């Protein structure tokens, strides 16, 4: 039997075959195949989910700026920066916005001229969504071709005055592209197109050579960070281990099989801080394109016989790793609670994790909060009635209420809206932290993708859909930019990543060893589990 936990009160959806669950959420196919016992939360509720909206996206030194919103009146532009002219891609917030257009028209809107630069909202939205229809390398090639043709960059001599008006704008576009979607430039073709267009305009201004070198240097640094992040993910995955189920039978004998979390950290606030470190580290490596590539399908208007870009380049490594971290934390919490032999120790562990969850809520770390609650609601934990009778559960019920799925997680979305508002007006990184419940964010994007077609019946790109997608992804990109203000504790972080955890069978066996089965079904399962353990020994 395969279970999709439904978050609270041990309510579960039973699915006889994992493949049927995969039809509901194809993105999580990789996870279902590898972790059939995984407690990933699939919340099946009717209606189109709505992610909380913040009025603007963000403006940082890394090139992001408000998306789907115009600059405020009277806001000064940086001297020498390209002016955003009233071209065909004029502000998406002040109508009439682009709701649909042919792919060719959208590409033309992306191309800057001497007198026009597209809104940054448009740039982000189109670069994010265009990969569903055309590979980034081909898109950049077509942009460069149009620039060469419009600016006559293949002529000699060049019109220096004209090129100097155009140069800052194409450099701005390339800068935004390399800073927002650096992984696109792992393709050597992308770097080749970038160098070619700058080489064509560089004879008109020596500063363009300097800009090219700076752009390539920063791009190289970003790609190195991406590679390091992916390597660390692989390393952590190799170091993570599981407790052999056969050890459960000996857990009552000293010395203890393993250290518990309390021997490493007995301060709930400190553990919540370290969990926030882990969350922000994962978020830092997730690129915006991964949200699009998670659900991509072949473009029906792509008549080529070659595999589509989406089929060739469907890379969601960092996003998948973050989902695995959520599942690991769920199982770690359940393991820590089921492992102690004595009821008092289990009750102490439950109260400790309740306090950790409360601190996560106060920090704005909703993902760790939900993972802890989910771990405590797993059946092997929730069935420990004698243990729960010894705990003070009032705070736990309050936290459950905050994360109640009723009304499409209305309470959580209200709390998230408050945290987002606090972040916008914050004076310190401590107050800027917003870590959303990630599985719900993925669910929102999934339903947006499934509920709206990429193309309209006339073949036009449904740009209105991608504006909403850009808003949701853009908001996430705002939150991931926050630097963690808490000091690292390497011992705690190492434990969180490498502490052994039980499999689902191991959790049930540990639970039955702690508190005897109450009915025939549980007795039969306990007997089967113990038989399997003896067979392995």
From TrEMBL:
Pfam families: RasGEF, RasGEF_N. Residues 267-517 form the Ras-GEF domain. It comes from the Eukaryota. Residues 69-91 are annotated as: Disordered. GO terms for cellular component: plasma membrane. One of its GO terms (molecular function) is guanyl-nucleotide exchange factor activity. This is RasGEF domain family member 1C. SMART domains: RasGEF. InterPro entries: Ras-like_GEF, Ras-like_Gua-exchang_fac_N, Ras_G-nucl-exch_fac_CS, Ras_GEF_dom_sf, RASGEF_cat_dom, RASGEF_cat_dom_sf. The keyword Chaperone does not apply. It comes from Fundulus heteroclitus (Killifish). Residues 94-224 form the N-terminal Ras-GEF domain. Keywords: Guanine-nucleotide releasing factor. One of its GO terms (biological process) is Ras protein signal transduction.
């Amino acid at each position: 039997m395969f279970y999709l936990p439904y978050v609270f009160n041990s309510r579960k959806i039973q699915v006889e075959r994992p493949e049927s669950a995969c039809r509901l959420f194809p993105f999580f196919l990789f996870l279902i195949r590898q972790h059939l016992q995984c407690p990933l939360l699939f919340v099946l509720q009717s209606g189109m989910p709505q992610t909380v909206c913040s009025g603007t996206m963000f403006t940082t030194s890394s090139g992001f700026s408000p998306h789907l919103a115009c600059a405020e009146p009277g806001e000064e532009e940086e001297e020498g920066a390209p002016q955003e002219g009233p071209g065909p891609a004029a502000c998406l917030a002040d109508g009439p916005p682009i709701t649909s257009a042919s792919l060719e028209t959208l590409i033309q809107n992306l191309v800057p001229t001497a007198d026009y630069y597209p809104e940054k909202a448009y740039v982000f939205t189109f670069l994010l969504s265009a990969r569903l229809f055309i590979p980034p390398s081909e898109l950049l090639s077509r942009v460069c071709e149009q620039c060469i043709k419009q600016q006559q960059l293949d002529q000699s001599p060049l019109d220096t005055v004209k090129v100097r008006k155009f140069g800052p704008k194409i450099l701005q576009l390339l800068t935004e592209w390399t800073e927002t979607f650096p992984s696109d430039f792992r393709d050597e073709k992308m770097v080749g197109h970038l160098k070619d267009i700058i080489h064509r305009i560089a004879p008109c201004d020596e500063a363009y050579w300097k800009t090219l070198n700076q752009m390539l240097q920063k791009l190289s640094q970003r790609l190195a960070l991406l590679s390091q992040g992916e390597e660390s993910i692989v390393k952590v995955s190799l170091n993570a281990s599981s407790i052999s189920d056969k050890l459960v039978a000996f857990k009552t004998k000293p010395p203890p099989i393993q250290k518990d979390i309390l021997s490493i950290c007995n301060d709930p606030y400190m553990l919540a801080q370290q969990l926030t470190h882990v969350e922000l580290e994962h978020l830092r490596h997730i690129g915006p394109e991964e949200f699009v590539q998670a659900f991509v399908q072949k473009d029906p208007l792509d008549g080529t016989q070659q595999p589509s870009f989406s089929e060739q380049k469907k890379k969601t490594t960092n996003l998948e790793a973050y989902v695995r971290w959520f599942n690991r934390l769920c199982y770690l919490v359940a393991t820590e609670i089921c492992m102690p032999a004595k009821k008092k120790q289990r009750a102490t562990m439950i109260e400790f994790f309740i306090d950790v969850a409360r601190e996560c809520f106060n920090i704005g770390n909703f993902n760790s909060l939900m993972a802890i609650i989910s771990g405590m609601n797993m059946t092997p934990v929730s069935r420990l009635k004698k243990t729960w009778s010894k705990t003070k559960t009032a705070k736990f019920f309050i936290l459950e209420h905050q994360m109640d799925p009723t009304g499409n997680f209305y309470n959580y979305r209200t709390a998230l809206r408050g945290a987002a508002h606090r972040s916008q007006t914050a004076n310190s990184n401590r107050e800027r932290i917003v870590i959303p419940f990630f599985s719900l964010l993925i669910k929102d994007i999934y339903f947006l993708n499934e509920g709206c077609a990429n193309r309209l019946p006339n073949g036009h790109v449904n740009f209105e859909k991608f504006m909403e997608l850009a808003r949701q992804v853009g908001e996430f990109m705002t939150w991931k930019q926050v630097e963690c203000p808490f000091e690292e504790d390497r011992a705690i972080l190492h434990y969180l990543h490498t502490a052994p955890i039980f499999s689902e069978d191991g959790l049930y066996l540990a639970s039955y060893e702690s508190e005897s089965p109450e009915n025939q079904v549980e007795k039969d399962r306990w007997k089967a589990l113990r038989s399997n353990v003896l067979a392995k020994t």
